[in-house]
Design a protein that fits this description.
CATH superfamily of the largest domain: Rhomboid-like
Strand content: under 5%
Structural class: mainly alpha
Largest sheet: 2 strands, antiparallel
Oligomer: single chain
Number of domains: 2
CATH architecture of the largest domain: Up-down Bundle
CATH topology of the largest domain: Rhomboid-like fold
Strand order of the largest sheet: 1-2
Radius of gyration: 27 Å
Number of strands: 2
Amino acid sequence: MEAQTDVQTYLDQGKQALAGGQGREAAIAYAHGAQIEPDNPMVRLGLAEANLALGDYDVVRLACNDVLRLQQEDGTESKLARALLDLLNQDYEQALELVNDVIQVEPGIAYAHALRAHLLRSLGQDYDANLARARAARLSYGGRFENSFPPVVKREPRAAYMSPYAQPSAAQQQQQMAREDLARNAQSEREPVPAWSRPNGFQRQMVRTRFFLSRYPGMITNILIALNVIIFILSNLFPEIQIDGAQANPLVFHGEYWRVFTGMFLHVDIFHIGLNMLSLYFVGRTVEVLYGPMRYLAIYFLSGIAGGLLFLFTDPTGVAVGASGAIFGIFGALGVFYIVNRRALGVYGRGAISQWLFWIALNIIIGAVPGSNIALTAHIGGLIAGMLIAFLFIPRLGKRWRI
């Protein structure tokens, strides 16, 4: 139930951003929601609406097809998705019929009225378009949905200029060609977008990347696990990898600084890597969803490096390998999320914090046992670093996050 409420928060943020003409911010909000519930048709429709505003029509088609796959044709989201596809195909009449069906069932959707206004204006029905636009503004508390749709290409309804049983005349053909030329050149006539809101190439690529990752939650964790396993296999086939990559602190002090990083990917035996990867799978996928892929990667690598540095200075003659410092950082990030959002999480949050503290204490006790052969300082360093970094990145939940 708590995840559903969090998704609703992102949905609300996306709707507000879209109504305010901020397509990029809407796309980011919907992408966060998709990381939590990748099969939610409302989230997928939001991604389609946001990318329509950004002009990324390939992503719009992908997202609309996802909605149609996830929901039956008579659903609200499915009808709006089909309407957006018809809009891209310039089949305005069919799109308008679908939007009218949606409004008849759910008249409170501001975006549906804004889309209806755009379709009516494209059909040359300016009076009705203005009425629909006013309703959209009223339902969204003043939202204007600026630049949320492709450039308007005005024309009369299909029935007004061509009978479905008659061949168009030469004049009608010329008019149709003129309309198509206007459609191709309309992009240059689009209303200017403020510089602060205009997405550049890098931002567009980031939105596409977020969209791709949102379709496969846990992908970054799976990649990290696969990378560790591949390196483990290679290090057993070629032992010199262990020799050249392990964090041997005397060699680090002599300038081989890369060992603090490469040691994170090496493991002693099958039990060592199995335990670490199992922990990473269960904890990492949760943290990846909560923080997002990029922040998750930052927590992972910075925690692993911090753990290696603490081990370096507390045991100058020691040698260590393993991803434990990075994994402890991920575990620390999970705890920070629970602690910071404990009020919004209610009873669930208090129980989660208790379990988190139990496992932290158990691992520290095991690492402190004489002869355990565990680099405890690397674990502690990763844990502390992960908590500090996570505190900077933490997504704070609103009051709606209730159980």
